[in-house]
Amino acid sequence: MSVLPASFRSRMNPSVVSRIALANVIANGVIVVTGGAVRLTGSGLGCPTWPECTDGSIRPTAELAGHGLIEFGNRLLTFVLVVIAFATVVAVFASVRRDLRRLAVLSLLGIPAQALLGGVTVLTGLNPWTVAAHFLVSSVLVAIATVLWLRSREPGVGQLLVRRPFALLVTGIAATVAAVQVAGTVVTGSGPHSGDPEAGRTGLDPELMSQLHADLVFLLIGLTIALLVGLHATDAPGRVRRAARDLLIVELAQGVVGFVQYFTDLPALLVLLHMAGAVLIVVYTARLVWSVRGPSSEVPVAGSPVTTAAVH
Fold first, then answer.
1. What is the C-alpha to C-alpha distance for residues 237 and 81, in angstroms, rounded to an integer?
2. How far is 249 from 219, CA to CA, in rounded Å?
3. Which of 45, 207, 284, 289 would give a disulfide with 196, using CB separation of 3.0 to 4.6 Å?
């Protein structure tokens, strides 16, 4: 039960909820990219302790120079993210959209959990496995925020708009994206950009891990092409076809960046661009998953010819 008066909930404009939810998506994505900038500039231990920056000081000292400022600046962004996530929760609970509440709360609660994991990462001297977990949790939060935003733009979640095999293929694509993300973090943990000269590496063969990552990317692209062909062949709703098409475009662009960075010895700028691409992959995958169900006013594609025509 909401503690907010019904009259107040009814006054919350859905467009306001949607705009705040979009800001939440952007903030979650930006902090991933700035976290990558911290690692790529060798500033991962610019604040060598946690929750303080140095022993006895919450701010970086002059001795830490630019690395301390970069790491401290990224920590400050967490507070901005908390404010936006909290505003999202307030907006959702002030609206009539009960179906969005769980996503809003998860988006908020994920931030302190992520902050604690970040603290563990610093205290363990940028252990590559905790660094990987830190990125993967961020990816989950980006996905949650994206689905929340997209759902806020419609009156509710309705029936499947595609045949069940296509829905299962979409689930398979999402699982493959997760595998690609995990493999990507392992590649990073085996490569040269550790975040600090003293940080350890996984000890795994970087070339072998890169090949595994590339193989999963090829699988992902193949599955997405298969989905797109199937959707066009069955005249699936436009929103699903567009979501699949856009995801494929992002995948191809991300693949090009990945290959170029690999064959140019991983320049920091391209690695950062690749991290931004990883965020976009998550966003567009979440959009694809969202797209297979229409608004609550829609009817299933598998219904009678009359209802099927109504959907189209």
1. 35
2. 15
3. 45
Instruction: For residue 179, give both structure tokens.
Output: 């595998």
Rounded Cα distance between 130 and 119, Å, is 10
Do the Cβ atoms of 44 and 126 come closer than 8 Å? yes
Q: What is the pLDDT of residues 91-118, one digit of tens each?
A: 999 999 899 999 999 999 999 998 899 8
